Amino acid sequence: MKPKRLTAAQRRLALAPPDFSMHGVGLTPDQYGGAVRYLFDRTVPAARGQEWYWQLDEPEFDATPLEWTRIQTVLFANAAVDLAPFSDDQVGMGLNYLMDNGLSDVPYAAVDASVPLDEAMRMMQAMPSLWRDGIGPRLARVHEPIGSAPSRLGFVCHMWFDVWQTFWRVRSEPRWQAAVWQVLREMLCVPCREVQAAALHGIGHELSHLDRRDEIEKTVAAFIRSIDSGDPDLKNYAEAARQGRVL
User: Fold this and answer.
1) What range defines the domain where residue 104 resides?
2) CA 97, CA 59: separation in Å to the nearest integer?
3) For tag attachment on the chain, is the N or C end more exposed, with fewer CB atoms within 10 Å?
């Protein structure tokens, strides 16, 4: 039996860009605004002080896995505007809470059984904007030894795909493989050395799980050719990533 042809309306819907607005994903302004304040409107601790998420009496934000997935979708897509009021350290702390399952259960939200795969994929479609518009401009002038940017945001940038457990739980799922690879590929195009190194770090760790070694080989080889000859460290790191040898 031949598959049914899509109607004109269905074709338009399939071609339409995803709606990453609060209304488009099904969040209220109170839900989203409350989450942004919870994550980022925090006092940066003094030297030797603890970040807010280590406080034992700190209440958790009341959101279901689906709501956390949608919150991240909107936040990633609108990072340039919605993170603008906060300092680099505040942004680093909040993103660390989303990244690290040792701090919260948010990394498990998008792979929770209650969250439809399409919702998780919409979140992943939004993720490149976090790196391009949210992290990249803040770290654009950083030129430290790879993986050693001395800031909370630098740590999150470099360690995201090392620490982030979301993909680890679904690494054999083809749509997740494609989605993670798309994020990493777009990160390589961000004009920020820290973001590019973070992409290479992720590629090096996830190479065996992305199920597209030839494509990755060609993409990283092209990236290596594009690196200025004055940055041998980045070139060497890219070569190591291509072979799955990064720390």
Assistant:
1) 62-242
2) 13
3) N
Q: Quick one: which of 169, 142, 174 has its CA closest to 158?
A: 142
Is residue 17 situated within a structural domain? no
In a domain, residue 3? The reply is no
Whole-angstrom CA distances from 18 to 3, 44, 99, 129, 204 are 25, 35, 23, 13, 30
Q: What is the pTM of this model?
A: 0.91
- Evaluate if residue 13 carries a pLDDT over 60: no
Does some domain include residue 18?
Answer: no
Count the residues in the chain.
Answer: 247
Look-up of token digits 């401009």: 137
Residue closest to 105 by CA, chosen among 63, 71, 160, 159: 63
Judge contact between 77 and 83, C-beta under 8 A. no
Q: Over pLDDT 90: what percentage of the chain?
A: 84
Helices within the chain (DSSP H only): 8-15, 22-25, 29-40, 65-77, 79-82, 88-99, 117-129, 136-139, 152-163, 166-169, 174-188, 193-206, 213-226, 232-242
Q: Using CA atoms, how far apart are residues 47 and 26, in angstroms rounded to an integer?
A: 40
- Number of structural domains found in the chain: 1
Backbone φ/ψ region at 244: left (φ over 0), alpha (ψ -120 to 50), beta: left
Residue 96 covered by a domain? yes
